[in-house]
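Subject: Protein entry, chain in single-letter code together with its fold tokens

Area: Proteins and the way their chains fold up in space.

Attached in line: The record itself begins immediately under this heading.
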Amino acid sequence: KRSQFLTLQDSIKQGILWKTLDLLNDDPPAEGLHLIFLRNNILTYYSPPLLQPALKKVTESLELEGYLIIGAKEKLPGTATNMQPYSRYPQALIRRDRPWRVHNEE
């Protein structure tokens, strides 16, 4: 019977940096990341004043043309103008060279 889950070969896992972070207080583990999975996290649970700085840290740690994968029911706020949908996969976004738009809550 085939599993419904995907797995990575051990040789591939060795080159991956696996981290769990507090996105409000921790700095990203690196810059120029190729891929970030951000599912069931800040987009779901953070209020806009907390979401903006945390999401900015995440998206700016991606390299240009790096990918951000979000949950199926999640959406990025309009301030994340440096991220654009990738092809027909709405949960896959790609970083483009656009500035982050500052959103001021009154």
Remarks:
- The first helix runs from residue 10 to 13.
- The longest strand covers residues 62-70.
